Amino acid sequence: MTDLHGAIDAVWKLESAKIIAGLTRLVRDVGLAEELAQDALVAAMEQWPASGVPDNPGAWLMTIARRRAVDHIRRAQRQERAHEQIAHDLRRDGHAGPQDEHGEYEEQDEQDEHDEQDDTLRLMFLSCHPVLPAQARVALTLKLLGGLSAAEIARAFLVTEQTIARRVAEAKRTLSEHRVRFELPGREHTAERLSSVLDVIYLIFNEGYAAASGDDLMRPGLCLEALRLGHMLAGLAPHEAEVHGLVALMEIQASRTAARTGPSGEPIRLHEQNRGRWDQLRIRRGFTAMLRAREAGGTPGPYVLQAAIAVCHAQARTAEDTDWARIATLYQALARLMPTPIVRLNQAVAVSMAQGPQAGLELVEALTADPSLRDYHLLPSVRGDMLLRLGRHDEARLEFQRAASLAANAAERAFLLRRVDEIAAEEPAGATLGQAVRDFLGRRDLDPQTLRSYGQTLRRLCRSLGEATPLARVTAEQVTRVVTAAWGRAAVKTWNRHLSALRSFSAWAGLEDLTAQLQRRPDTPATAEPIGPARLDLLWSRADLPLRERTLWRLLHESGAPVSAVLSLNVEDIDLDDRRARAGRTWVTWRSQTALLLPALIAGRTRGPLFLSDRRPGPARTPADGDLCPHTGRRRLSYERAEYLFKQATRHLDPSGNGYTLRRLKPRDVPPGELDDAVRA
Amino acid sequence: MRYLMTTISTETTPAPDERLYAEMGAFIEEMTAKGILLATGGLEPGGVRVTSQGDEITVMDGPFTEAKEAVAGFALVEVRSKEEMIELARRFRKIVGDGVSEIRQVFGP
């Protein structure tokens, strides 16, 4: 037997979905099912070298795995339900099995086959369940239904094998934590759940078709996996139009694989592709799937509409023959179902082809304010195309430059830069935005923190408007658009900080105020609402609080003094009898609870910081003398550490789950600052 | 990757019967549904041979006596690996009985 490993792997990939699905129905736990299936695979590797590959390797694996499952259930001696299942399976298993020479595998009647199909469909719904994050759905689907190993999935997605293994393990845990059942969704949820499955498959396809990052434009292996999954699903749910729509869409897109990249890997746009290199076999399969979708009927969903658009392109013998009016209509329908910015961008392209670039440009302009598109390279690229067709060459050139700077894929970036070069350059008038920003940030009269903050703002401006934009052409309207898209929903402080940066830049560059159309937002001081008494009682009643923490928190609560003042207290300043201590120019006072704890905390020390860190400082970090305890050599407890510990300890009390800040230990009745005044010496 | 599998009948190849048609039909259906089988068909025994030599092109009707073992059918298949192709060929041969299948990777389109 040559390359038995390869043969076993091939069998596994063809059969794993069916096997894992059948086992999951038996043991009701997809993680366990996969383990049992893997056990069967190990058995195959042990036995097949001697016995040869059996006649029906899939059935062989299934029989072994099912035996193990039954053993497992029997060993676990679980609920009655499981016993019934055992009885059923023993009946089904009969006496045939891999141990018998030339053994017969159980003949399956039609009912079983039907069950098997439903099991695979259930498994698809399970691995694409909405409780899972999208990435987990993808990994789990490729693993369980595609039979891919973690290493293979990792390679396709350019991540480490551990990442995929972790994603799969977490996904299985999530499924069991949420007690997701191995069942077909009820009628009222079918459409929603099915669309989740379709989305996962299309995500896999797109990851292969339009590799988002890296240097290869396509990873065809993933396209093939997605096509397989799509066909599998179409076989399992033949009456769902959307499934056939997805298959049609993927087939037709995949038909252009050979034509959509040039010799050095650069993308070739649809209308420039050599249609002779489109794979007619795939196109025909796409058309067939489209016919099935029509037969299934119903209102066309998003995948059927997208497939219909793909069909329009595939039917056109030349780019000029393309029925753009129909495509624009289809996009209009699609935009009603999925008003995503990407769909609307495509709609704009179709409209520009059907009605001219001006009409398209108007649709595109509406999208430039959309935050989700702010770093999407195709937006400036499409806009550049339309500007070019309108004869606005210098603007077009800037857009392509910006698109190139946003593109993550090396081949696409090179392509966009070539488009920049193709447009005859007009001399830029004066300094560019990029140069001005660099000069501004190179100033020496600002402190590093301010520069860092300004840099954030201005780099975003450059990314959004393009570094090569002449400074004189930057308008308040453009800045308004950028700022609103980028930080419209940011916190008040963030918003105001960016406005200040832009105002400072405008003044420095001698421009009119670029923030003229933007309003500063009123800054409400951060309120530190004191923690309520009930929650505090819970905190005090905890027995596991270390003495230092208990004392610090009691002291903060009873004194109402600023946290930094309390942390700065030294042992020599403590007046235990009068229950007060000097902190700089103010006094910190306390009451009975702190008074009970303090002597134990001081524990005979005569001077040095009252609150000490847990460890001695490392040799490289020698704190100031005043922050070092002469008795223990330990450092003063830092604000950060104290804050962290309090947050950790109060995480369960805080409804937001973040934990409280120390400032919130202030007593209810004393407004911040007032107490300080009252006790001022 | 795509493979073309051609099937050659030999002297011991059994004549097709009901069972073969049924099993083969189910197999083709399954493979098509999985998106694996792209195209398949049987081939007429004789055919026409077109030969070019120099400027001359000759057209000759079959059957061709020198070909004892004629190609009887083909399948164009899309798979992940050569091993997967071999596994499919193995299943196919189980159904048709004696004979030979040849597998070659298809480059292009």
From TrEMBL, chain A:
Residues 526-681 form the Tyr recombinase domain. Residues 103-117 have a biased composition (Acidic residues). InterPro entries: CB (IPR044068), DNA_brk_join_enz (IPR011010), DUF6596 (IPR046531), Integrase_catalytic (IPR002104), Integrase_recombinase_N (IPR010998), Integrase_SAM-like_N (IPR004107), RNA_pol_sigma-70_dom (IPR014284), RNA_pol_sigma70_ECF_CS (IPR000838). GO terms for biological process: DNA integration; DNA recombination; DNA-templated transcription initiation; response to stress. PANTHER family: BLL0085 PROTEIN, BLL6612 PROTEIN-RELATED. Belongs to the sigma-70 factor family. ECF subfamily. It comes from Thermocatellispora tengchongensis. Pfam families: DUF6596, Phage_int_SAM_1, Sigma70_r2, Sigma70_r4_2. Residues 431-510 form the Core-binding (CB) domain. Residues 76-102, 667-681 have a biased composition (Basic and acidic residues). The lineage of its organism: Bacteria, Bacillati, Actinomycetota, Actinomycetes, Streptosporangiales. This is RNA polymerase sigma factor. Keywords: DNA integration, DNA-binding, Sigma factor, Transcription, Transcription regulation. It comes from the Bacteria. GO terms for molecular function: DNA binding; sigma factor activity. Residues 76-117, 612-632, 656-681 are annotated as: Disordered. The keyword Transferase does not apply. The keyword Transmembrane helix does not apply.
